[in-house]
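To: structure subgroup
Subject: Chain for Friday's discussion

All,

I'm putting the inputs and outputs inline so they're searchable in the archive.
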Amino acid sequence: FDAPDRHAYNAVFAAWAESGAFNATQKIEDLYNAMTAAGGLRPEDMNWEHAMRACRTSKADPSKAKAVLEFVQGSGIATTARMWEDLLACYVAAAEKGKAKAGAEGGDAAPAAYGDDAEMALGTMVAAGFQPSRKEVNSAIRCRVVEGTAHSLGRAISLLLEIHNAYGRDGVAERPIVRDVADGLVGIVARDGDGAAEAQGHLVELTGKCILGEDFTERTSFGDDAKERGEDAGFCVRCLADGNLLQDAKAVLTHCVAAGLTAARSVGACTALLEAELRAATGAGGSGSPLPAAELVLQLIEAVYHPGVDEERRGRGLAGRGTVDKFFQGMRDFHATNTGEAAKVEDALFAIASQGLDHAARGAGLRALGAQAADSLLRLLQGQSGSVAAARKAEEAQGKFAELLLTQRRGGGDRAYNAAARNNETIVQNWASSGADDAPEQAERALREQLQRGEPVGERAYSAVIKAWEKSERPEAPHQVRVILDLMRERPPQPNPDPHMATLGSAMRCWARSGRPDAAEYVEALLHEALRLHATDVNEINFTYALNAWAKHPHARGGAPDGRWQRALAIFNLMQSRGVEITQISMDALMRCCLAVPSTAAIEEGVKIIDAMRQHGLAPEASTFGALIRAQALIRGPDTAERIEVLLQKCVESGVTPDAVSVHHCVKAWSQKGSSAAVAEKCEFWVNYMLQHALAPNATTWNCAINAFANAQTPASASKCEELALRMHGESGIPANEVTWSTVVKAWDKAHRQGDAAAPLRAEACLEHLTRYLKSAEYQSTASGDPKVRERLLVPYNMGIRMWAHAPAPDAPDHAHKIVAWMQEAMLPLSTRIWNSLILTWAQREGRADAAEKAAEAFRQMKASGGAPDSQTYDNVIRAFARAPNVEATSLGEAVEIFRELCAGARAHPPTCHVIAEMFKLVNRVLRRDGERRRTFAGHILEAVQNSIRDGGVASIDGRGWDPMLRNLARIVSSEAEAEDMLANAGITAIACRDRDSVGGNGRKRGSMDGGHYGPSNGGGGPKRQHQ
């Protein structure tokens, strides 16, 4: 056959070029070699566009296309624009293929870069005499976009600007390539890595120069291009916002609003702006506050929902649904965690919701946004408690936005109904938990107003009102709870008409603790209603309410004929029959019901309850035994202490350590049992038990034990009392108080009466402790101003002074004066008894020459301090004169004056036969050598007595000193008969009561005058009772 000519070869080259086969370039190369080898055909005979086309369609490596082009140029063959177009297309295909491969393999490997090759190809094309078209430059831009670096994208923008310079902007047509460049730059900013700042700079350049144009901000009218330019501007807003250039984005949107470019206010642009504001708040260095985003929302509302914006846009949402939801969720979260900014969040939501009220004129999209803001506001206010302001704000918001919410939810079915009910519940709940004094009334008012308006009210609203009344603990609370429950049954809530278990529980708790006569029956009725409606939800707490109500019933008593105890047992049996778990709480409630009125029968029933607890696998606690012991302590009887101890032993044998109160009751009961040593030992045993088991006995417990030893009157009782007082502080850390040391002094006083010579000194040491305690800040902070309390504090000091008065020690008065000084330091008043005891101390010192003088000095100090001397005072002073070792005439004169003073106040303090006897004795001692003067002085004494009987109205005097008086007078007149006549003439014989067992009129019992021990009237014994 004939050899193929160049047309045949070019036809085959064209077929392979359009085939797109992977081996098209190889086939063309083989045919070209065959063509030139046959001879007669040269390279210029081949159409090289087919070779370049084959490289493009087969997606061959760009190096092959470049080699073909270089061969053509090297052979002196002219290139064509199509060949350059195919070369750039090869670069784009290779770049995208490399990007896809890198994405499939993962990792950080970057795809092969062809941007520089593409730009070099453009330069070579120009050098070859060809002007690159938009399509060819776009191929180079595409290579740069695929590379994805900030530098490459910057080069892409430069190429785009070169196109604009050469051919001008191509608006809509070039949007895809512009979008690709912008998305690449935004991606770099989002990754926040190297080149982020450079990418932001390129974004500004892209939007300002390539898209909007440098004259954009100077123009205020765009004519027919307004829609297109508005869309471009909206795209720029989105790009800048996505690139975290928030202020630049806002500036573009602001100019668009001013220029009337409504198309710029797209959902995408608003979404990007809001997302950028939220990112700025939560990102690094952000304040975390969504309040700037709230301000942006208000600005966007003004921009979007504007009469100049088309109706279709105003009918749509402000921004994307997810972004708007994120904004409102951010507002709620910020409100919950930043209480200081809570009011600002509420105000911002209130402002946004208020914009929604104008939705009829501004668009349906604004209605949805306002309703969502109102709903968020109400949810925030619902979460607040203890605030009257929040309750008022919630009610104001509900009143203002109710129509908006209902309009938005209309047609929403149960979901819309439930949302409205939830908002109404918010109002009631906020008032219920506001902490206001009238919170229950306000909550009930809000509930009734909602019912009156016919608005949906949920069960929680009723429950909130009931709980508010229950928490108030007012006397009228039970009645109001009952009223609300009746209202709930009359106007049942939707969708659940029955009272919730928590609601019934609150009502039961309120009535159970009210103590009303009808509480037990009503609580039991509520319990049965709960069992009917919520059988599986009734627990032991609800049964406990019923048991406690019966325990507080006015007529409740264990095993009483009226059957109250049997009603409580019936509730307990019902609890068991329904399989409700028997717990310690329910058993304790049953115990309280049993012991509501303590009795022996109740105690026996209580013991049975403890046995029943063990049958249910419950270990009785200390509080359970404690309830029994407290009830037993209230049953006073001769065997109370023994019964309490038996219960304590049961507790200990059960492996339970009793509580401190229970052991205290045992100690107290034993301390009141009697005055035996066995009783005192019992008290000490249980105090030691408390210490061993870390039960911390208090001051009262210690004092009970100390008082038991003080009453025991054994030789070692006083020492034991003092030992316990010191242990009280050393082992319990409790300072011994005034009761403690008073009791110990009383014990030493009894020991002194029984002949313990060391008693006065030990009592004095205890009084020093007592004085130190009375001066302490602890006592001063709790000291009572009651005069009776202060009067009782004088008793132990008086005991100490009286002990020294009857002690044989020569320095006894010095000790007595020391005790008086302590009293003055403790700011205690010096009573008549204290002065009497002090003067008696001197009167008993017969061996001291200054005894009479000191006694008289104390007497004068007593009167100067406002003290009121009584018969005992005069008795002690005159005795001091009569027993002085070196008595003189001056002493007699002073004694006579004191005696006359006594007789002058005879109505209040009549002279006794002992005092008269001491006066006669003193006359005998001073005037023993002058019989006439003795008789004269005796007459003066009798005359003073006679005047007191006649003028003072004395009806009787203590006559137990009759014999010494008669004997001493007989020595003066030397005749017993004459002495009897003188006493009869003075009227003494007629009124002297000489009965030793009773004293009539103004007579007083008193002790012996011979220096022995004294009776109670001379020192007053210990405290009348053990006070706490």
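Points worth raising on Friday:
The first helix runs from residue 6 to 19.
The longest strand covers residues 957-958.

D.
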